[in-house]
From TrEMBL:
<comment type="similarity">
    <text>Belongs to the DDAH family.</text>
</comment>
<dbReference type="InterPro" id="IPR033199">
    <property type="entry name" value="DDAH-like"/>
</dbReference>
<dbReference type="GO" id="GO:0045429">
    <property type="term" value="P:positive regulation of nitric oxide biosynthetic process"/>
</dbReference>
<feature type="active site" description="Nucleophile">
    <location>
        <position position="248"/>
    </location>
</feature>
<dbReference type="GO" id="GO:0000052">
    <property type="term" value="P:citrulline metabolic process"/>
</dbReference>
<dbReference type="GO" id="GO:0016403">
    <property type="term" value="F:dimethylargininase activity"/>
</dbReference>
<feature type="active site" description="Proton donor">
    <location>
        <position position="163"/>
    </location>
</feature>
<protein>
    <submittedName>
        <fullName>N(G),N(G)-dimethylarginine dimethylaminohydrolase</fullName>
    </submittedName>
</protein>
<keyword id="KW-0378">Hydrolase</keyword>
<dbReference type="GO" id="GO:0016597">
    <property type="term" value="F:amino acid binding"/>
</dbReference>
<dbReference type="Pfam" id="PF02274">
    <property type="entry name" value="ADI"/>
</dbReference>
<dbReference type="GO" id="GO:0006525">
    <property type="term" value="P:arginine metabolic process"/>
</dbReference>
Length: 258
């Protein structure tokens, strides 16, 4: 049977020191962040996902953004080499966690860099954003890892936001959603549905019509609800101050036969 597990990683005491690139730094309330992270995990579990906690990395302020450390395609986990040097120590415990869950493990090698936040999978198509964190060698290594498994890898430039998935994600039917001012190449995505808020571009597919979304995107949630989806809203304000979004707080593992 296909698995329904999701990796998550508890935020550490240094969370407030997390990287900010496109935003002004704002004070992060760490206890509130922890409560928001617990509620995020509760929302996953309430919709049938078994959450698997990666061992915390308390020296790494950004470790809670676990999505950036691994890309899954079928049963293969590509352990990334994050573009930000301060994030590179995050990967070893993630590697151990996915290996223990039965994934085959592959790696992005130096000098390539790749952040999981730059990788959007829609069926067998994998969009990869070449931007501030993912370089050309990282894109090549992603292709080398997944094209032999049947993926079609499509590279797109990313400049306006931190990661590709800060700009666009996809609905269950494959429609790409994004807030147009922040999508560098709208024409790369067909079909494309504009949403009215930046954080409205971020959905985690919970199963069926349910979409995990940030509470900061009420108008986008209303739009999607009107299209027959069922948004499940979580407040992740403290992570948004660090350029995090709902997608980056977990990695869903759907193709492990365990
Ligand atoms: N996939 C993501 O959107 N990750 C967010 C990472 C935020 C973190 N502060 C960073 O700059 O790396």
């Amino acid at each position: 049977m296909a698995s329904k597990k999701a990796l998550i990683r508890r935020p550490g005491p240094r969370l407030a020191e997390g990287l900010v690139t496109h935003l002004e730094r704002a004070a992060v309330d760490v206890p509130l962040a922890l409560a928001q992270w617990e509620a995020y995990g509760d929302a996953l579990r309430a919709h049938g996902w078994e959450t698997v906690e990666v061992e915390p990395a308390d020296d790494c302020p950004d470790a809670v953004f676990v999505e950036d450390t691994v890309v899954m395609f079928r049963n293969v986990a590509l352990i990334t080499r994050p573009g930000a040097e301060s994030r590179r120590p995050e990967t070893s415990a993630v590697e151990q966690a996915v290996a223990e869950l039965g994934a085959s493990v592959n790696w992005v090698w130096e000098p390539g860099t790749l952040d999981g936040g730059d990788v959007l999978k829609i069926g067998d198509t994998i969009y990869v954003g070449r931007g501030g964190r993912t370089d050309a060698a990282g894109v090549q290594q992603l292709r080398a890892a997944f094209e032999p498994l049947g993926a079609r890898v499509v590279a797109v430039p990313v400049a306006s936001v931190l990661h590709l998935k800060s700009a666009v994600t996809a609905l269950p039917d494959g429609t790409v959603i994004g807030h147009p001012p922040l999508v560098d190449t709208v024409s790369a995505f067909t079909p494309f549905l504009p949403v009215p808020e930046e954080s409205g571009a971020h959905v985690v597919l919970l199963g069926g019509a349910k979409l995990l979304m940030a509470a900061s995107a009420p108008k986008s949630a209303e739009l999607l609800s009107d299209l027959g989806y069922e948004p499940v809203l979580v407040d992740i304000s403290e992570f948004e101050k660090l350029e995090g979004c709902v997608t980056c707080l977990s990695v869903r593992l759907r193709d492990l036969y365990v």
